[in-house]
## 1
Amino acid sequence: MVKLSISQSVAYNRNLKNVLPGGVHYSFRMPWESKQISLVRGRGSRVWDLDGNEYLDFFAKFGANILGHNNPEYNQALIDTLQRVSSANLGDIDAEAAEAVCAHIDSADMVRFSLSGTEAVQNALRLARGYTGRNRFVRFQGHYHGNADNTLGGRVGDLDHPVPEEDPGDLYSTEGKAAGVLKDQSFLIPWNDADLLESLLERSHEEIAALLMEPICINGGGLMPAAGYLERVRALCDRYGVVLIFDEVITGFRVGLGGAQRLLGVLPDLTTLGKAMAGGALPVSAIAGRREIMKLYENRKVVHGGTFNGYLLGLAAVKATIDLLARDGGRAYERMGEGMGRIHSALLGEAEKNGLALRMSGVPGAGVFSPAPSSADGPRAGMIAQYLGKMIGEAMTEHGILVSNANRLYGNISVDESDVELFQARVGDAFRQVGEFVAKMQGGPPAAAAATAS
Ligand code: PMP
């Protein structure tokens, strides 16, 4: 299957830019959004557009869709809730939803719900500041924590004094930020360097309320923590009275029921959750953490607002999602791991056949693939690899595979044998197209053709 006909999607999208800036809902474009594909139907790992084209959906709404599309049990739980009561400040599933989160997130005694990951992170920072009486937090290069001024972008010149300044070349650089917000609120340092962190905390702990990190850095390219790094981070936070926040908005309920913290065996003080926790159709985020810190909400020492916090439909989605994920001792994750593992292997195998050197990072449920920069490309190697990555994402779209930005593949628990087979066939076609293009640019035959000829 090659070259989709998308005339109906294009016609539908023609006027969209008049009412929706850029014709999209945010600034981080997916490879397939340039094609203006409008999706109207889904089942399992597949979605269909207005023209009836079928895609494998490993974009999964930025990783939120962990169940696959149209899961009957999940849908029924939402319908049942809607048919009972439209809105209520407290209903009869609040305890079940909160207990489900606390049962699986090992560091969580209590939880507060909100809507977006951005919001959960900001509230976690407020809690940490309230708890410690300090102002700054430490951020790490390559980690993403949402759309707020104080976590977006920045660079540091001097690692001995890592106060971030605006970086106009950064993907997250934006006009309109409150002045001084990066500089006044955070330090920004490289991740996975425990000695550097130790010296920063030694010098500046009296002004540091929190350390904020993705325990597996999916946004930075699917990076795992170095051996022993998180253990040292934990010990340093204990030594200097700093609140450790794991931002598990992507990894929570995606890399396993217990999130990255269980997988890696290190517990934070606070965890932010979102995306997959509510199954993909509805926005629910959460701050989960140690009782002593969460209790600051009880005596109103720290304020937490939000009209839709703990809305019933969202709590029903959380409860139904966690029930589905936890069934049969979490077998769903094993199945997703098997299926996505085979998909990752197919991707790497087909790339190699077509002369493309790709590497895969991350975990089966959230894999990131990227072209390895080639030393033959000299000083422009990084740029060329980045361009190639973009081209590969677009070719995959043209061959019916949707991936998230920065070439992420988000799996879901419904992925099955037929999805793996379809992926293999389509990715082969996509990579042949890219391989032929690259070979033409380099003036030689494509690797696959050369291999067949010899
Ligand atoms: N934290 C992490 C690790 C994320 O990946 C994201 C979103 N990609 C956020 C926070 C922000 O979540 P939201 O987009 O729901 O505000």
Note: Confidence is low (pLDDT under 50) at residues 449-454.
## 2
Amino acid sequence: MTLHDSFGRQITDLRMSVTDRCNFRCVYCRSADPENYRDHDEILSWLELDRLAKIFLGLGIRKIRVTGGEPLVREGVEEFISRLHALGFPDLSMTTNGHLLAERCDRLLAAGLRRINISLDSLDPAKFERITRTQSFSKVMHGIDAVQNSRLAPAKVNAVLVRGLNDDEVEAFAQFARIRGVIMRFIEFMPLDADRHWSRELVVPAAEVYERIHARWPLVQIPHERSETARKYRFADGAPGEIGLIASVTQPFCGFCSRIRVTADGKLRTCLFSKEDHDLRFLLRDGASDNDLVTYIRSVVNEKEEGHRINEPGFVPPSRTMVFIGG
Ligand code: SAM
Ligand code: SF4
């Protein structure tokens, strides 16, 4: 069985958020103000997540990414990953801020995790602190070290670039990729921040990042799958490491999107920028059968929006911000 939308796109990629909680407060994601986390009973239980994962596997989902909030703050995430592994997802990965990674890396690996993305928005500890509002720089670096010394290597290291904040570090990040052999990915800032500070002027276009790195260390494009969000490059001089550019704002890849999301409170989202989400939790708790869930998921996916419309006049960001969606 496969999942398709009305534009003929096959959906093979699922992001499951296991918590809306986070131990960081990145300026482009959460607010500095206290937030009301959802009560624990509003968040899907592991049993409910297991059931959904199995249904989605049956519907042709091949790539599953565990995310949040910060997935490592929810107890039991390794066991969940191990159950996803046992179910047989061909591609099983996680996105984390890295704070708890050094001490959990071995357990994640043993659970069956094979790929990991780690957020790192500055190589300067003081700036890292301003962006994440934490003092976790060295913990994250240790997390990256742990991954690089394990079978999870190479780590994908994600930086969201914000003009005037960390865009002066493009070359430093590229050098980091070369020295450490990581896949350094630059993500354009999207209008999903809790403080609603996003503006087009704050977006650092992927094309600019490419030009700057290419001028210093010529890049060679690596072929990519159509549905992949990143344009990938290696260094022409044969240095280790890789560069990934994710141009969600300036060169949207919606036409090839193969992705859906389940939020921590059990809502199905067909686009990061969906105006509405669809209540799987209600069905799960109302006695729906697997067949009922399959029928519902199919009908929701069929209505997946054509694109995100960030670049259209009158664009309104979704009410849910990134930490409550799951990136
Ligand atoms: N807490 C984990 C982390 O930070 O890696 C996982 C969840 S986080 C929401 C997932 C990804 O979304 C991270 O790579 C983060 O940098 C990215 N992200 C958050 N807010 C964003 C925004 N406004 N624009 C672009 N990417 C964003
Ligand atoms: Fe937390 Fe990740 Fe959002 Fe940063 S980007 S506040 S680490 S969820």
Note: Residues 22, 28-29, 67-68, 70, 95-97, 119, 158, 160, 187, 189-190, 192-193, 322-323, 327 surround S-adenosylmethionine (ligand 1) (CB under 6 Å).
